[in-house]
Amino acid sequence: MKRFIVKYFKEILLILVSVVVVFLLIKVLTPAPDKSELLKYKLKQLDTQIDSLNSKQKQLDDSITVYKKDIEKIDENIEKIRSQKTVINNYYEKKAKDIPGMTNQQVDSSLRKRYNF
After folding, report:
1. Cα–Cα distance measured from residue 42 to residue 113, given in angstroms and rounded to the nearest whole number
2. Which residues have CB under 8 Å from 102's CB, separation 6+?
3. What are the residues whose beta carbons fall under 8 Å from the beta carbon of 107, sequence distance 6 or more?
4. d(Cα 41, Cα 92) in Å, to the nearest integer?
5. What pLDDT does 76 receive?
6. Rounded to whole angstroms, how far apart are CA atoms 70 and 72?
7. Which residues contact 43 (CB under 8 A, 6 or more apart)?
């Protein structure tokens, strides 16, 4: 058997190489199965998912704008309160400066006006 393989080594090698070449040619030349339907289905699924994500994003954007408007209103209220606080503080600072120069009757009348009693 060993003598047979050694004697016909070139022929055996030639047959093996030719079989591999024929196999590769068949593999390369056969058309691939058509997967276009599967690809179309997958693309449709991706499109629907993208559309749903876009709609959710729009909803989130709308809610964010509503919250921003609410925040702006709250900020305006805070600013109004700060300015009112400043005005009230200034009024009482003036009154506190006026009291030492007033007589007892003037202090009494100003407190009556203030507290309505």
Report:
1. 81
2. 110
3. 99
4. 76
5. 92
6. 5
7. none
How far apart are the two ends of the chain, measured CA to CA in Å?
Answer: 132
Which tokens sit at 26? 């068949």
Report how far residue 106's alpha carbon sits from residue 113's, in angstroms, rounded to the nearest whole number.
Answer: 11
**Residue 113 to residues 85, 108, 109, 110: CA-CA distances in angstroms?**
21, 9, 6, 5
Question: Tokens representing 24?
Answer: 């590769």
Q: What confidence tens digit (pLDDT) does each residue in 51-106 have?
A: 999 999 999 999 999 999 999 999 999 888 877 777 666 666 777 777 777 777 88
In whole angstroms, give the CA distance from residue 78 to residue 89: 16
In angstroms, rounded to a whole number, what is the distance separating the alpha carbons of residues 22 and 20? 5
